[in-house]
Structures are given as C-alpha cells and as structure tokens.
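Q: Got a minute? One more chain.
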Amino acid sequence: MITFPNAKINLGLNVVSRRPDGYHNLETVFYPINLCDALEFVPAVTTSLKVAGLPVSGDIEHNLVVRAFRLLQRDFQLPELEIALLKNIPMGAGLGGGSADAAFMLKMVNEHFKLALSEDTLETYAAKLGADCAFFIRNKPVFAAGIGNEFRSLEVSLKGYYLVLVKPDVHVSTAEAYAHVACQRWQVPLMEVMAIQLEQWREYLFNDFEISVFEIHPELAVIKQQLYGAGAVYAAMSGSGSTLYGIFKTKPEHNFPNSRVFVIDL
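A: Always. Here it is, folded:
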C-alpha cells in the first residue's frame, strides 16, 4: 500500500506566551500544500525502514514513521512491516514533512488493516508524536492554538495562486528559534487577519520567529525581499524556518542560487 504525505506552510505565526511547562502558546494557520513524500509498506518478518531521496539519519525506532506504527502495534495485533520512504520534503524546514509522514502512516495502517479508527482517535494517536502531527489526519486548513495542537476549522483558500518555496542551505535550530523569540499578542488577532484580502496580508500577517531568526541568518531576510521583488503578493518564513515562501498571482521566474526551489500550483 502506498500513500503520499504532503507538506504544509504556516500562514502567520504568533508566539503568544510562554507556558509553565516550558512550551509556548501559539496561534497559526496550517495550510496543506502539494509537495509530497511517498510512503509504502508490506508485511515482513522484522520491521525495517528503507529511505530514498533526501537522507534521513538516526535509529529507525526513533523515526516518526516507525514510532507511529509502533503506537498502533501496541494496541492492535499487527505484523512487522517493511517500510519504504521516498523523502522529497526538506527536513528541518518548517514544512512539517516528518509529522506528515507519521500521520499518513497512522492513516495507512488504519485503512490497510481495517482498524476502523475514527479521525478523532487517529488525531489522539498523532498528538502523541508531535504537536502538528494531528493536523495531517484531516489535512485541511485550520487555525491552530495551544502548542499547535488545538484546531478550529477555517475557510481559507489560495486556489488559483502559485506558491514558490525556497529552502536555502541553512539550518535553523527550533530550540534556538524559541530561545530568542519575543512573546506578545498581535494587535489584530490572526483569525481577523484571515478575513482580510490577501493583498493586505503583508501589513497584518507576520511570523514572529522572523525577527530573531533573521538576525542570526540575514540571508533569509534577503530571500524574503527577493520574493517580493519577484512579484509575490505575500511572502514569509514557514514555521521556525528555514523555508521562505512567496504567494504569486502568476507563475514567476525565479533565481535562488544555493537553494532548493519548488513552484507549486495552489
């Protein structure tokens, strides 16, 4: 059985406050995009994970895909699996690729082995793997709050636009990004901004991580300005980086050396 886990971008990201448990309260919009990995499995004597495409390091039992399978295997009689992952979504890029792989693994195992788990139940499993994993169960645009795990349905569509993703050869540590971010509620709440015309987002829609991350990695700020210079209606960093994206009305020409670039129809 094969499935195609897709990435997401963040439309706005407000780091509202620091929590007593050390995490942060956020407000953001998760928006699914058509940039995909490929994931498949077959029953096997022992569980294994074969990765092609972009390299994935670490012990397989620590990989989110295998951890997702093990969660279900603890509660259901499931055979061992030979899992194959074709990695196309850049990692550590703010695109949620690992979380998507895990969530799609849960959904695929549920379907293939006829476990009859509801989406609510699958979300509960996914939330144990990571804050944004649960989003990929329903895989529809949502307003997310809490640590990124409290969802509210949202009517927002970028259909008809083009998305340019630029992933430079820069690694942004999530811990580093959170350590330097300033916490403050926006004057115009994110849900209100989402009701504003896209052409006005540049004035009201922000990613709070950009201030501190751009200071450490000024080349990311340059890419954002290049996206606007190429005609983007709106441009921002996704998550805590390091991917920048631009939303365009027409398919743009692009030139971003030393970066992976994806042009996607929305």
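A: Residues 170 and 217 are 8 Å apart (CA to CA).
Q: Perfect, thanks.
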